Amino acid sequence: MSARRATNRPITLRTAAHRFPRAANLLTALLFLAPALIIFALFKFLPMGRAMTMSLQEVNYYLGNRWVGLQNYTEVVTDERFGQAIRNTLLLAVGATLGSILLGLLLALLLEGQARHLWLIRTAVFLPTVAAMAVVAEVWRILYYPTADGAVNSVLGWIGLGPSQFTNSEDTSLLSVMAVGIWRGAPYDMMIFLAGLAGVDRTLYEAAEADGARTWRRLWHVTFPALRPVFVILVTLACIRGLRVFTEVYLMTNGGPNGSTETVMTLIFKRGLEQHELGIAAAGSMILLAATVALTLAVQAARARRSKEVTA
């Protein structure tokens, strides 16, 4: 009789948690994540779905939207302005990525160590990353003042160069914006490199030094192989950051002069919010999203293939 009563006992939350621990842990995690997931869905996934729909429509504010299929994508692909914006975006992404990684690695190698005074230097170097991009763009716009008495031109005059027009010239505007991206992104890369350098086995340096390896060989055969996962992460983040560049271009040049610094993001903004062509702007944003996802998947696939080769 007692056994029958035990088997007919109702299942409570506590008993269910004991019987199904993995399901209980998953439910607990979902409950904690539910507020963030709801907010993320409202402000990320729903607008993304709306943008996908708008990219297939001709958006009219008062007359209603008209379905046009892939016409918006065709116009984006064939539009010369979008072609120039894509070229500028790729150049900015590649240049800023390589420049910030190389400069960040150099700063990390110079500032690596346990000395107490290094934390102050690292903090000072890291400040550009903390500053708002709007502030950074405005400061550099002032520094790039194109006359001979401008801040940067004055420094160039000390070594017999300049004056340069910087963002006012089609020949130097893209490089000037790229330099700002490198200046702001390098400290962030430096901190990640410092974290990676802290995990390098010091005995490898001692063994290499005992074998007579000089500084460059120790870097090439010990440091760089140990930092390979860090390079993968930084390349992925920097490329995505470069493809989505907007604020510094919009505030410093607004895509000028003559479209020499126009990027995909600034052109999407202009077509959508200034020219009220929201369908074409949505199509451009979807193409940019697809490029970002493809880049991320390509890097992850290369990383997985590399790890398989190492383990094999």
**Outline type:** globular
- What's the CATH H-level superfamily name of the largest domain? MetI-like
Biggest beta sheet attributes: 2 strands, antiparallel
Mean model confidence by pLDDT = 82
N-end to C-end Cα span: 61 Å
Global structural class = mainly alpha
The CATH topology name of the largest domain reads MetI-like fold
User: Stretches where pLDDT falls below 50 for ≥5 residues?
Assistant: 1-7
In total, the number of strands is 2
The CATH class of the largest domain: Mainly Alpha
Question: What value does the Rg take, in angstroms?
Answer: 26 Å
As a percent range, the share of helical residues equals over 70%
Helices and strands, in order, run as HHHEEHHHHHHHHHHHH
Label the CATH architecture of the largest domain.
Answer: Orthogonal Bundle
Domains, number: 2
The number of helical segments is 15
Identify the strand order in the major beta sheet: 1-2
Portion in beta strands = under 5%
How would you describe what is shown here?
There is one protein chain. By secondary structure, this protein is mainly alpha-helical. The protein has two domains: 2-54, no CATH class; 81-311, MetI-like fold (Orthogonal Bundle). It has 15 helices and two strands. It has helices at residues 2-7, 13-19, 21-54, 71-78, 80-111, 118-130, 133-143, 151-158, 173-198, 202-210, 215-226, 228-243, 247-252, 264-274, 278-311, and strands spanning 57-58, 66-67. A two-stranded antiparallel ribbon has the order 1-2. Helix 5 (80-111) runs parallel beside helix 9, helix 5 runs antiparallel to helix 12 and helix 9 (173-198) runs antiparallel to helix 12. The model is unreliable at 1-7 (pLDDT under 50).
